[in-house]
Amino acid sequence: MTLAVRDLAVRFGGVTALEAVTFDVRPGSITSVIGPNGAGKTTAFNVITGYLRPAGGRVTYDGVPLTGLRPSAIARRGIVRTFQRTSVFPALSVEDNVLTGLHLRGTAGFLEVLAGRRRLAAEESGLVRDAAAILEFVGLAHRRRERASALPYGEQRLVELAIALAARPRVLLLDEPGAGMTGAEKTVVSGLIRKIREQGVTVLLVEHDMRMVMGISDTVIALNGGRVIAEGAPAAIQAHPDVIRAYLGAPRDPA
Amino acid sequence: MMRAGGWLLAAAALTLPLWLSSAYHLHVAIMAGIFGVLALSLNLLLGFAGQLSLGHAAFFGIGAYTSALLTLKGEWSFWPALAAAVALAGAAGWLVGRLSLKLRGAYFVLVTISFAGVISLVSVNWIELTNGPLGLPGVPAPELFGWSLRSKTAYYYLVLAGLALSYLVSARLVKSRIGRAFVALRENEPLAESVGVDVTHYLVLAAVVSAGMAGLGGSLYAHYTRFVSPEVFLFTYTVTMVVMVVAGGKGTLAGPLVGAVLFTVLPEALRAAASWQWQMLAYGVLLVLLVFFLPRGIVPALQALRRRGAS
Amino acid sequence: MAELLQHLVNGLVLGGTYALLGIGLTLIFGLMNVVNFAHGEFYTLGAYVAFAALAWAGVDFFVALLMAIAAGAALGWLCEVTLLRPLRGESIDTTMLVMIGVWIAMQNGELLVWGGVAKSIPHPFPTAPLVLGPVAIAPLRIFVLVLAAALIAASWLLIQKTKLGRAMRATFQDRDTAALMGVGIGRIHAATFAFGSGLAAAAGALLGPVFLVYPSMGDLASLKAFSVVILGGLGNLPGATLGGLLLGIVEELGAGYISSGYRDAVGFVIIILVLLFRPSGLFARQERIA
Predict the structure, then answer these.
(1) Weakest mean pLDDT among B12-26, C22-36, C188-202, C268-282
(2) Which of B95, B130, B310, C153 is deepest in the core (most CB within 10 A)?
(3) A1-78+169-255, what's its fold?
């Protein structure tokens, strides 16, 4: 059940975005990837989830190779991500956003849909119930019917999280879940991440907010210049000379 | 309120030949129905899956020619020929869908136009099969249990059945998980992929159903006008379909129907006042105005008005 | 062999004008990111203006050409300012629909003004072909080739050497920086669209006398222009030039050796094949990021 990254290399023209990146994500852990801007964190996410093809290296989950698969196939294997910039279905209601996230839980195929089988109506009601439960979990039940684009920024990011959770991830990759959030919102998100882990989901996140990272992570992986420069428990990483050098001291909390 | 309105419309449509019995009125109704099928088909691809196909006349034409040739030269009965027309048009849709998988936006449009262009040239040049520019006259009228459906009234009901079928298919697709997948791909493709929506599968599905439905329209057209020529591939048909969908409201179910009725009835009503060229000119100007002032189309605008009125 | 050379020469003449069409569109589509389905209509406009100038006003051929270019550029400028500028932030689909509307309106406008009967543009050149070894070429076609080449060269010079050209290239590579450096973005967009449309009109005025002029001639011209742009690469001037020449030659060879009925299919097939086997330039697969 381990997500294993081996020797990932990504190059854009003359620029090396990732080089010899190797790490494991222990099942059931909360692992954070940190590093200064341009260190390659989101690039690593893009490779793991199939949005980018690496120049070299492999990603496997449970021993099964993921490299070369389309993002939707990777999602089917239980690896779901969120995006750095707000990514919702803006014109749809919050409920419809989550229902879309529940895509993989549905089974309605083309011919069945045409035939209008009664079973499908039951399945739909089930999905609506599931969506309600997820919205309850992230605390957006009261926003169910509203247009996603009309929500304030912090709540849109919760919608993103709800969509990702709907896809029933075994490994959840969160790309800067705290970005642009207030301190209070970050506390809420941290709490949600812990609860998600309690349900058996492995969490891998990229984050800049050190307080958030140190507060919830079991393992921290530090990247710089496309390479892994340190890996270990939060306290150890905080004290690691290479990490300190990469950041020139602990970064200021943007909140 | 809307349900009652819907039932009223259905009742009106079912009894139309009783209160609009002149041959001319029935003709307009039949054409509106055929274009309704075409507009619904384009709407699936354009309105829901978000891909503009400017070669849709190709699927319409393939359906028309298939049906015509099978009944004329192959001496098939209408109904299997209709099925074949839908199947062949759908297959063409599959081809275009699979070929254009990697392409989005303008490039997809260009491939659809090119595809339609090639098919059009084939219909003009492959004389042994299609009789070239002279076309295929004498396409037989359909028969049902021995009764010929040649009369306008009978044909009206045939078209109405076709329209109802198309609407049903569209509605069921759109309101299902499949419809959600289409919309997801249209609204935010990377996000859709991240939750497991298989882009290939759904875009090709949209293309196949859309094309097959257009083929249905083509067959209905061929057996009504009883004559098929390369003119079915005229860009005018595609333009008309696009205007109907965009003006009526892409991404809604009622929109294409509204557009089809409007843009069949209006040209007929204006025919005395303005020639076909003026109408096409007006279509062009209208498209531009729509983009600026009514980008989502008539039906969504009316829905928005109703919501504002209610609040 | 003589036949081959003849086809090649004819192909060059055609190709030169296709290059003009392609250069104009590669700037508009490649740099401004506008899917200009009305491009062919500026081609038609150029042909009709040349017709009017020559058949009615009886002016010199050069003057007619200049008038055609001016008309195309002016109308292009107008389109950009009134229709495209207000939509500048919108998605590419929106501008595409608007240009489709312009396409339909222009074509039917021409139909209304000039009628559907094809017109023949009178030209001052002798009709007897010049015989150069194995190849016979009408003086008109030589003139078309020479002028096309001159216009292509002028375009290259404009883009590479002039201040306007530099400003255009800067705007399209990095608009924000260009704006900070004092480049008037609005004017550059308008100038680019006008320039591209003027070139299309020139192509129409040049080819008009060679063939006939009729309202729907622009449809194929648009598609062939897209063909050339896709072949040569978006925003790539030398690519568009070579692509245009190549298209013209392949068309002539195909018409000569295979079948003339399918000659227009060449452009279509190019579009399909190139787009299939070379993933579209805007979405280079390696870099597809959410």
Answers:
(1) C268-282
(2) B130
(3) Rossmann fold (3.40.50)
